[in-house]
Each structure stands twice: as C-alpha cells, then as structure tokens.
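chain below, 626 aa
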Amino acid sequence: MAEKEKIASDKKTMRKKLLRIEKEKVSSMLKKTSHKKLEPKEVKKSGPKKRRTLERKKIRKAKPKKRKKLTKKTLLKKRGAKKLRLGAVEEASTVGEITKGFEKLKPTPTKNSVVSIEGLPTYNMIVHGPMAVFPGVPGYRELERYWVDEPFAFVVVLENPETNTRLYYLVEPVLTESEQDLLDTIVERMRGSIPYVGSPADKEKFLAKKVMGFLRTLEVSDPKLVHKIVYFVRRSCLGYGEIDPLIKDPNIEDISCNGLNTPLFLYHRKYYNIPTNLTFTDAQRLNSFVISLAERSGKMISFGRPTVDGTLPDGSRLQATLGDEVTTKGSTFTIRKFAKEPFTPVHLVKYGTYSPEMLAYLWLMVENKKNLMFIGETACGKTSSLNAISLFIPPDAKIVSLEETRELTFYQENWIPNVTREAVGGEVPITLYDLLRQALRQRPEVLVVGEVRGQEGLVLFQAMSTGHTCYSTLHANTVEDAVNRLEGAPINVPHNMLAALDVACFQSISYLGKRRVRRTNTIVEFAGLDPATGGLRINEVFRWDPVRDKYDKTGDSMLLREIMQARGWSQADLERELTERAKLIKYLADRDIVRYEDVAPIMRNFYANPEKLLKQLKEVKKTGRD
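prediction:
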C-alpha cells in the first residue's frame, strides 16, 4: 500500500510539473500571437432597436474569423494544446525561416540519433520546429558549424576579429525550469534500471521505451518534448553528461577542465587550443562529475586520494583531481580521446607525417625483425605511428603488448594485450616491469611496450639484446636527449646495451605558416659502438625539410645493406622491394583507402601472395577501375 501511495504521489507531483510546462508554453505563444480586435462597422441611424439588430448581425458574421481556442482554459486541454503548438510553428514561420542557418551545418559524423519510439510520431524539424537554435554571440563572426549529435546538438566555431580569439560554441536544446525538474526526476528514477549488458543501440531503445512509458502515465504526448527529454536522459545515463557532445566530436583530441568557473578547453584538429562556452560553476556538481568519470574508468577517487589515472570505456585516457588541495581552482579533469578508428600507414602519408618511401623503409625493418623506437614530445603522434606500423608485422606473428592505458590495436589475431594495475584495497600493484618479465616467458615474436619511463626500459633493452623484436615509444626531442634519458635514472640502460636498438624515428609538432602539423624530423640508425671512442655511431637516413615540407634521403642505410646480404638480394632486388612497397602505400593514399578494416586485408594478402596482389594493382592501373 505504501508503494502504491508513493507512485500516486509521484504522478500527482509530475502532473503539476507538466501543468507548469504547458502554462509556460501557452503564455509564450499568446505573447507571440497577435490578433486583430473585431469591431462592428458603423451603421446608419435608423432607430435604436434596428441599430442593435444590425450590430448583432455584423458581429455574428465576423465570429467565424475569431479564434475561440486562444483562451488559457482551452489551450491547456491536451488535444487542443497539441494542435495549437503544431499550428503555431507552421503559422509563425515559413519552412525557410525554421531551417534558417541549418543549411550551413555539415553532416553529422555518425547516424541521426533520434530514437524510434513506438506510438510516437518521428521528430521532424519542419513540423515540430528545431530542437536547438544558435542565438549568436555579439562581437564574433562565424567560421564553421557542424553537427555532433544530429538533430540535438551542433557546434559553431566563432572568431572575434578585434581580439583574434576563437570560441567553440556548443548548441543544445534549451530546457525551461519546469522541464529541468521533470528531467531530474526521470533521470533519478532511470539510473538503476538500465541493463549492464547489451549493445549501445539496445540500451538506447530500452531507455527510450522506459522514458516513454513513464511519460505516458503523465499523459505527455508532444513529440518534440518527448524526444528532447529522451535525448537528455540518454546523455545523462548512457553518455558523459554535459561533455557528451564533445566526446562525440571526432575533431577533438583533448578535453580539459582547469577548475571551477573556468571554461572548458579543447584541442581541436583544425583550430588547436580553443575555449568553449561550457563552464562548471557549482563545486558540488563538478566534484560529482569527476567522481563519476573515475568510476567509469574503474578507479576510485576521494579527498584522501585525490588523483587518478584511468581509461574510459571508449578507450580515452583520463587524468583527474578532486577538490582544491592538489589543484587550487577546484576539481579538474583531462580526457585524451581514443581514436575509434586506429591509424594506418596510409593515414601517416595523408597527414604528411611520413612519406611512402620512409614507410617502405620501415616496412622492411619490421619484416626483418629490427628493433624500433618512436621518440618525440608530448602529443606528437608517437603511439599513433607505432599503431600504424604494426600493420607491417606478419599476420601470423605472436605479439605481446604492454601498456599503462590501453591504446594500441593490432589486426593480428595472435596478440596478447596487457595493461598495468594499481594497488587498490590492499591488492598488489602490477607494473610494466612485472608485465614485461612475464611477457618474456610467453615466447613472443614481437614485444610492444607502450612507453618506456622507468626500470622496464632496462628489461626491454635486455630483451632486444637476447634476440626479441621490440617496439616502443619514448619522450625526448633529439638523439642526445634520448640517449641521456635512457642512460640516466630511473631507466638506467648501460651504454653498450643501447646498440641493441636499430632504428629511431624522431617526431615533433611543427608549424607551416599558421598551420600546426605533425612531422618526422629524422629517422636514424644506431649502428653500434665506435671501437676507438666507445661512443654510439648514428647514421641518419631521412630528414624533413621544413622549407619545402618534403622528406629527403640523407644517407645510405647500413641496415638495408645487412638485410640485402641476409636475404641474398642484389642491389636491384632491394630497390625493387622498396619501390613496390612505396607504390602500394601511395596507391592506397591516392584512392583514399585509409580505414583500418580496408588496409589490414591488403597487408595480409601482401604477405600471403605479394606477386598476385601487385599484379592485380597493375591491372587496376591499366583499366582505371578499382
């Protein structure tokens, strides 16, 4: 009985909230709608009685033109209010006015996110009006706009000509105070009822069905309002709340919250570091949001342990702090987004990070089990390059990867991914050093370490020295910096062991005019130790020319000479192998074949039957058909 009384009380409360919503909408429509007063025409004097009769006739004739349904009492009726809402949109604006500004929007990177709800008309912008409207920002001019969650959320990139500052403006549906109360109640009731298993699409359908069932008990049937509520419930329960549209924007690499009352900053692929119109102004809300992010990464954060590093369900890196003891502006978080589609060698050519000839060189290095390391500053694309180069690994090779946060994706099935674990609740922590020692017992053909930072570097170089093929990344800018880091604490690799590394690719973030680009400054070979001096012999093979934005071959490769001798090739054979591989990569880049699932089968076919694949490519070039 108590539960039934509670449900009845909830329904009564929600009906009051809905009544407030209806009243707000009716009041706003009555203000916008203007109606001419009907006045009787002037009549000739022919006696008082006759005049009153004529006036009544005139008024009676004019009555059909008068709108009877414009009183608040009739508007608040369910059907009447619904009809007027749809009619008001159609009368107040032409189709062109409704869709004004939306023709500028670039197509959404994902499918339309309107969930089909049984028994409810599909949302239509022309019929129901736009979900979100950009109000404009004084002093700013528009550079670009595009959908991130069509038809609910889009982005407008603005620029202030006077200050030369840019703004990333997120546009979403606006909720009235009563609609917000309704949403908060539904979200609170929905949180515990969403199943943990199932695909995202199934969860969305389940959620929409639950929300619609709840709204039906409250006699809510306005399609626009229902879809709006479903969008915000989905964003809160299945997404990342306020920043969910930012997570869905494929142009964003990093999302940073620097504290309370500070705008969120993004690293945009096109506009680089740019502030947004999103700000956390409530300390309690920001703390709750950071705690929820930590929980979603499977980690715990508290005021006693106010920092956390983790991986979100989509693979993005999370670093967060709680409270104002560690970060004085309040809680903070930084999300480095994980690319849903892994990089391929073709991506590296398209972005100008490598040339086809450089990739052909690296392909032969990988194929012949040479040790590689990608070195550079933060966010210069080291891990992306490592992931792309992994497509050159033979498809049947056994691979073991070790990472602190999962970022690498390999197409080979014979692959064991490992990640570290922090000590939680008295558990023993599992470090990269522990994982590396275990991996050496798994008999890997290729060992991949996400990043060398500590004592695992010594074990990695010991593995190289004992014949294991190893790939990794390192933070450094130049050859000298890399050697100093590897030899110094806490890595402590002995000087003579550095000769086990074969190839190092040095990457950086550079500028071409005002454009920020990722380039490979140089590729060098570690050619052993000089017998006379004991120093490392460095042989530079490729170098980037920033003036021409081209890559030049600066020296003969000693490693290619070793490969040629080991495989019994002539110089002509070696040149042919390099040329064919470079042509294949260029062929894929010219035809925009960049997707991981498209490139991986081609690499697999190359290893299975390279002559057949190259013959097919030649026939395609002759006929001009793909």
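DSSP finds 21 helices and 18 strands in the chain. The radius of gyration is 32 Å.
thats it, cya
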